[in-house]
Amino acid sequence: MELTEEQIQAIIEDTANKVAGIVDNPCGGDYSEFQCYEDECGHVYPNGSYSEDSEIEEICYDGLPGIDPMESDIFITAKYSMELSFHDDYDPGDYLTPPAGGIEIDEIDVRIYDMVFEIDVLNHDTDEYESIEISKEIKDRIINEVNKRVGVAEAA
Predict the structure, then answer these.
(1) pLDDT confidence of residue 156
(2) How far is residue 6's CA from residue 121's CA, in Å, rounded to a whole number?
(3) 15 near 59, Cβ under 8 Å?
(4) Residue 124: left if φ>0, alpha if ψ -120 to 50, beta else—which one?
(5) How far is it, in rounded angstroms, from Cα 142 to Cα 70?
(6) How many angstroms separate the CA atoms of 58 and 120, rounded?
């Protein structure tokens, strides 16, 4: 069995939406690990960078077009790297003005670099589950399309 074009597009769309969610809310809004730059003299500069490798789970968790969710097991994950730069816009305030500001994201780059596909569909003729094989070309196409949709140049 192979994926249909409609199923490939559903995987691309769902993955791109999940990557867009990461771009809109990196680290789930928890910036506690962000460190501003400090030189050897102890001067703290109000900017910094952060990088992380993680993975997105539950891609197309609710199923794929043309495949009955009750007769399939779908497990698709995407591994990504995220790099961002930020600055600390914190103003401690004074007697009349309360503190304001905090971490502001300047640039963010989220890039999918690998995906894992485990798609098993029930074959009614044999009453056994059969795996849908994903070729390297299809996998690379999905990764490149997702990265293109979120503004990352195609991998060489």
Answers:
(1) 35
(2) 16
(3) yes
(4) alpha
(5) 25
(6) 15
State how far the Cα of 105 lies from the Cα of 122, in Å rounded to an integer.
Answer: 46
Question: Which run of H or E residues covers position 90?
Answer: none
Distance of CA 30 to the CA centre of its chain: 16
> How far is residue 95's CA from residue 13's CA, in Å, rounded to a whole number?
50
Cα separation, 62 vs 34, in Å, equals: 34
* Helix (H) / strand (E) containing 15: helix 5-24
Contact 119, 74 (CB under 8 A): yes
What residues have CB less than 8 Å from 85, skipping those under 6 apart? Answer: 47, 48, 49, 50, 105, 106, 107
pLDDT at site 155: 40
- Walking along the chain (156 residues) 10 residues at a time, the average pLDDT comes out as 91 95 87 72 77 93 89 94 87 82 86 96 90 94 95 52
Distance CA(32)–CA(24), nearest Å, equals 17
**d(C-alpha 147, C-alpha 111), whole Å:** 6
Neighbours of 129 (CB within 10 A): 13
